[in-house]
Amino acid sequence: MPLPCGTVCSWARLATLYRVMTPTLIWIITLLVAYLLGSIPTGYLLVRFFKNEDVRATGSGNIGATNVARSGGKGLGIATLVLDALKGFVAVAFAWHMAQRLGFPSGYDLEAMAGLFAVLGHMYTVWLGFKGGKGVATALGVFLYLMPLTTLFAVVIFAIIFALTKYVSLASIISAAALAVLCIFFDRRHQLIVDLVYIAIPLLVIVKHHANISRLLNRTEPKFGAKKKEA
Fold this sequence. Notes:
By secondary structure, the chain is mostly helical. Helices cover about 75% and strands about 0% of the residues. The protein has one domain (about 25-220). The protein starts with a helix and ends in a 13-residue tail after the last helix.
């Protein structure tokens, strides 16, 4: 059965619009989608749905995987980690799709910026009054797409630091700093925007850990899995 003329014409107009979209509009749409993907508060939603609790009112008050694991159990913590990482990965994959379909000669700068906006969305989610997580898992997803082998090396660094200290925050800070250096060193393209993103995302992650840094210096930072002492 042939499609009605109105339907065919609508799809034809949409296809034409898709082909003639200006680069500026493509950038705006891609970065907006990346931000909205990153802004999905997965940890908050999981704890609210499965525990009927507000994760922001427990533990550190953070909506990330570590606090979700402390507040809602390891299962929810792992789910939050995976979904938060997936947000960053999908945001960059969407940017790649837009660049490829619209014939950008090199879409790597668009992909990198989409990753940055996904992390910003997670850190400053519009759905929770622009207060979100610290961006570690979302940044992981972004870098797994952009620089997979280098990112896996940073994950090994994280695992070693965590195994030795049991401090998730310390492992996150050190591995984030290492990731910035490694990506700039191993990425031979050396595009300015991309290199700036390699620095910006880890720097944002470290800055979001400012309270943890203070507690680490004061030796009051709780180790992962440690129970609070009874009063």
